[in-house]
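Much of our argument rests on the idea that a fold can be written as discrete symbols. This step matters because it turns folding into a mapping between discrete strings. The record that follows shows the chain in one-letter code together with its fold in token form.
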Amino acid sequence: MPRVFLSFRKPDSRWMRDRVYRALSDRLGANEIFKSGRSIPPGADFAEILRRQAAECELMCVLIGPGWLDARGEDGVRLLDRAHDWVRLEIATALRAGNRVVPVLLGDATMLPDASALPAEITELGRLQFLRVPETHLPDGLAHLGDAVADLLSDSDSDSDSDSGSAVAAGRGTEPPSDPEPAADPEPSVTMTAHVSGGGSAYQAARDQTIRLA
């Protein structure tokens, strides 16, 4: 199962989007990146796969270029305002699942959409910290993106390990201590009688023996 889902609008910044995909594939491995045009095999139910991948990914990168927010159909209606718009559905699915969603701004001047400009089910996107891949410093921007995504996945692994450790501590790790071994019975005390003559003195033969003068 790919860990990173790339959400994008096809007509928006295609060449930069392809560079992002190649950079993340080189850094993490192509099998870790879900990109609909490459990751859905011919004849597969693309709607079912998109929904499942969006719900189960560890990280969704929403690639936002200059035309992402205001892209419109032939009827003039903004695509994002359509209930069946796939970009909108992908983001809403990941947010409902509690997955980490990161806006990735493509280009130097692209701005994060304001929450008020987004449909209600994805308004949270407009409040999330973003990453930027600037066109003027593209190699450095792609390297920074790769580092950031790798770090986020590493944090996810650490959280999983911590949860697993907590589960062990709450279960097998808290076995009650075994009963202590019973103390050995003390050896019986031996009483000895010493007869002292000629002004001598009594003596104690051992620490477990009691001397009583006659």
